[in-house]
Amino acid sequence: MRNGYGCLYIDGRRVRAHRFAYEIAHNVKLSPDVRVLPCVESRLCVNPAHATQQGERGRGHWSTLTINDVREIRRLASTGAGRMDIARRFGLSRSAVGNIVNRRGGWGRVE
Question: Which of 35, 46, 88, 92 is the Cys-Cys partner for 21 at CB 3.0 to 4.6 Å?
Answer without folding.
Answer: 46
